[in-house]
Amino acid sequence: xxxxxxxxxxxxxxxxxxxxxxxxxxxxxxxxxxxxxxxxxxxxxxxxxxxxxxxxxxxxxxxxxxxxxxxxxxxxxxxxxxxxxxxxxxxxxxxxxxxxxxxxxxxxxxxxxxxxxxxxxxxxxxxxxxxxxxxxxxxxxxxxxxxxxxxxxxxxxxxxxxxxxxxxxxxxxxxxxxxxxxxxxxxxxxxxxxxxxxxxxxxxxxxxxxxxxxxxxxxxxxxxxxxxxxxxxxxxxxxxxxxxxxxxxxxxxxxxxxxxxxxxxxxxxxxxxxxxxxxxxxxxxxxxxxxxxxxxxxxxxxxxxxxxxxxxxxxxxxxxxxxxxxxxxxxxxxxxxxxxxxxxxxxxxxxxxxxxxxxxxxxxxxxxxxxxxxxxxxxxxxxxxxxxxxxxxxxxxxxxxxxxxxxxxxxxxxxxxxxxxxxxxxxxxxxxxxxxxxxxxxxxxxxxxxxxxxxxxxxxxxxxxxxxxxxxxxxxxxxxxxxxxxxxxxxxxxxxxxxxxxxxxxxxxxxxxxxxxxxxxxxxxxxxxxxxxxxxxxxxxxxxxxxxxxxxxxxxxxxxxxxxxxxxxxxxxxxxxxxxxxxxxxxxxxxxxxxxxxxxxxxxxxxxxxxxxxxxxxxxxxxxxxxxxxxxxxxxxxxxxxxxxxxxxxxxxxxxxxxxxxxxxxxxxxxxxxxxxxxxxxxxxxxxxxxxxxxxxxxxxxxxxxxxxxxxxxxxxxxxxxxxxxxxxxxxxxxxxxxxxxxxxxxxxxxxxxxxxxxxxxxxxxxxxxxxxxxxxxxxxxxxxxxxxxxxxxxxxx
Length: 798
Prior knowledge:
Layout: H1 4-23, H2 58-71, E1 75-82, E2 88-94, H3 100-115, H4 117-126, E3 132-138, H5 146-160, H6 164-172, E4 173-178, H7 183-188, H8 209-221, E5 225-231, E6 236-238, E7 242-245, H9 251-272, E8 278-279, H10 281-284, E9 290-291, H11 297-302, E10 307-313, H12 318-354, E11 386-389, H13 399-411, E12 417-419, E13 423-425, E14 428-430, E15 435-438, H14 444-451, H15 475-479, E16 484-486, E17 494-496, E18 506-507, E19 514-517, H16 522-533, E20 539-541, E21 545-547, E22 550-552, E23 557-560, H17 563-572, E24 576-580, E25 587-589, E26 595-598, H18 601-610, E27 615-616, H19 619-623, E28 633-636, H20 647-658, E29 662-666, H21 667-676, E30 682-686, E31 690-697, E32 710-716, E33 719-724, E34 729-734, E35 740-744, E36 757-764, E37 767-772, H22 786-795
Parallel strand pairs: 3-4, 3-5, 5-10, 6-8, 7-9, 18-24, 26-27, 26-28, 28-29, 29-37
Antiparallel strand pairs: 1-2, 2-4, 6-10, 11-15, 11-16, 12-15, 12-17, 13-14, 19-23, 19-24, 20-23, 20-25, 21-22, 30-33, 31-32, 31-34, 31-35, 34-36, 36-37
């Protein structure tokens, strides 16, 4: 049995430090509003306010919040982070001042919830005067303006009003308000942020600074209720959701209070406004509004034990602000009356994880209003005893993959341990320092969401619908992390990990004239692009060869033996470097490639992560016939339904390829475009659906360089090639037999996709064409596959 308590003791002290830093209130005028950073002084800029009403400008939010803090001791404001373009995110914390006894009870309760949930439940039976944190998230979509305005109105009411109703809220609730989650979108008048990401699809990946800022606050506060303000549906929509439901939620504990809060919000909406109808998907619909993927903000909060609910206000004008305000007011009133029972059940989520208790099936009494029966098997999760992640080679391709995964787990509040010595686990010998993620922890659902393979939903119901993909996600499989599953608990001594061990580079120090490093991490591409930009000679192998005692694989990078470069490679980029004596003839020198992309936000994010400079093409400039002759390679990854190119736009791209330009077509959009040109002898088949597939790389192909032969990819409307001319080489194929790991691809077993090519390329007369039937950059999540794009760009130099 795990020696749990020493592990918990160390973790407890770490938690207390974080808690005290994060939660304790400071007086207005303290360092939080210091003269060093006057966050309330915002330079006005050109903005795109709501065309439907006089919405508050982003530049007006900070001064208005500052005015509130000067005039009310109930409100403090913290800068919780910045947007992609550097605009501040404002977290307003609203609570009655004074009464340290009541606050002390809350402080103790929050510690116990994570570290002794049984004791925490006993505590709430003794004390009534504790407060619970409630989180309101405003306008995650920038052009859904009413949410932010409703947040401001809510803060002002609680700051200044002295009614009995307001006092009841202040006595029982600590209100956390992320006033404007998407400042870029509000200023620009767009749904997405400044770099094109839908922030409400990013929570389980956290590519964006706005998302990471919110995840940090949620992980530290563990809010009891989380309300996300959206628009626009008429009648107003208030969750909870339809099936399918994520099996990592303790749904029986969630649903009772989520539904009750929805009803309370509906009632208050009817009282305060002229609205007489509300849609509650759980009650009113059978499908189309699921809470399956943890990509959404409120579903992510549920993995931290919150009653996470999304609201879609019905109007784009001031009535939309009224509706949001009324609904939130209704939930606050409800929590005042029911906080003890609600917090008891939130703690029960943690208690089940802490003591490794089984999940509970949804009671029949809660199923009367929705056809749940066919989804019963999704409501029980068979949690393993632990996940095992070795820290580096030979288990990992490099030390980066494991470090990235562990850092992500810790950042999100998952408890991670490491072994103190060597252990044999299921017949495999793991060294000391191997990471162990025990699943008897309060947030086991969050840990399992990040680390599991996912579930194949394809045979559960024909035509199963999801509001938005993905139907599967897995950080180990799509981030290139080798991890094992421990199904039965073992006698292993571990210590808690407070901070991940950073990746570590190495140098062999043998005699020779050149340094070699492999393309087995994103950092290797960052280093390479950095060196090329500096004018340093960088070579890439086109075939494997032997030198001294090393076998240098295809696609390896080679630089002159310069100790300043060695310092960068080992200490800056944390790469493993070895030395060779001579360059073979089968290498090519890398140069700056002029790259243009007609792509989604994921592809652009991928290129930024890899360190490639690029220009973004738009539908309008392609349709206008932009001159593409300045570019060496074009990447096309837009879905067809996002790709309204006219005939001139299509011919502009086709002419670039006909003139000998390199082309990378990724996903169904890019591959379909390549086929439609008639320039290539290819045929392909496709399917609806998305998920994770097992693929097999050709280890001797340069586009497959740095990948394990047995690997994984994410597919969205998957493409596989059914016919290729002899000019095409197969880079990777879908694995044989049971290739579909998780997600939803109806009848994939009869698709005949197994064994078929999914990544191919051709090279002729210095032109390179790479076609990728998977979606290697989908919303920035399949990080391991970013390197396919990098390899394809470099291969175009041959």
